[in-house]
Design goal:
The protein is of the alpha+beta class and 271 residues long. It is built from 10 helices and 9 strands. Helix 8 links the parallel strand 7 and strand 8. The chain binds Dihydroxyacetone and zinc ion. The site of zinc ion (ZN) has 7 residues, from loops.
């Protein structure tokens, strides 16, 4: 059996968490990540019959029975995961009843998986249907993305078109646009269901006056979506209040879509 602390699915996660902490995306215990793992891969490091604990998730996910995830711990700080993975992360498997999580490793001090487990697992179910290779759901609190939801109307067309207009790369990276939820209480099954509903058509979902969800096939892809949204939001605020005299027009966006062969939200343009 190999040492779990050397497993790429642990080291890549903790390095990503340090990076996100240093970017200011994950203050205190802000943010959470879950990654779907391959059972054969995990079996190189852990005895899959050795269940350390069972945890009630509070919702049913029959689609995920037997699936194994590495998840951040509830109340844990992103900044601490790299030096203390065993207390800050957990590896869980959804048991046969679809509602119990079996702890295979981590959360060593008796911790629980992220408070946003409903949003993560419900989003995994939906994203896997949209893209069988999707493995990552990532949530964090990047400043300008969050601030954008204070000042723009909370509709997907307005927010997506604003972000597309802020820099050339936006429509290339997220041609499918950005889903938006109104302000809601976090950590609940209700916000989990609402997030998953948006994830049927979007890989990115904003939670108004809270933060952002990104999904992807690996950590880089989910993070890349989030940092691109954040960069566009930075452009928005760097130019807010100044006379804006140059613009990316709807015609420019159509030209980009043609050049990069993008399957984009045409209804978000006014052509
Ligand atoms: O884990 O970010 O949304 C803390 C949060 C809750
Ligand atoms: Zn949050």
């Amino acid at each position: 059996m190999k040492d779990i602390l050397t497993a790429p699915f642990v080291t890549e996660m903790t390095r990503m968490m340090s990076n996100m902490y240093r970017l200011g995306y994950d203050e205190r215990n802000g943010g959470n990540i879950s990654v779907l793992l391959d059972a054969d891969d995990v079996a190189k490091y852990l005895n899959l019959d050795d269940v350390q604990d069972t945890i009630h998730t509070g919702f049913e996910a029959p689609e995920l029975v037997g699936r194994i995830f590495i998840v951040t711990g509830s109340g844990k700080y992103f900044k601490n995961a790299e030096t203390d993975p065993e207390n800050n992360l957990g590896i869980i498997r959804i048991a046969g009843d679809g509602t119990t999580a079996e702890l295979l490793w981590g959360l060593a001090d008796g911790g629980r998986p992220t408070s946003e487990l409903p949003a993560h697992l419900m989003s995994h179910i939906v994203r896997m249907k949209a893209d069988p290779q999707n493995r990552v759901i990532m949530h964090c609190h990047p400043d300008r993305t969050l601030a954008l939801t204070h000042v723009l109307p909370l509709d997907e067309k307005t927010i997506t078109r604003t972000l597309w207009g802020m820099m050339t790369e936006s429509i290339v990276v997220f041609p499918d646009g950005v889903g938006v939820l109104p302000w809601m209480v976090c950590g609940t099954n209700e916000i989990g269901r609402a997030t998953a509903e948006k994830m049927k058509q979007y890989r990115i979902v904003l939670w108004a006056i809270h933060g952002i969800y990104g999904s992807g096939r690996d950590l880089d892809e989910a993070f890349g979506l989030i940092e691109t949204v954040e960069k566009a939001a930075i452009q928005y605020f760097l130019t807010a209040g100044l006379p804006r005299v140059n613009f990316i027009t709807d015609e420019n966006l159509v030209d980009l879509a043609k050049a990069f062969k993008l399957d984009y939200r045409k209804d978000f343009l006014d052509l």
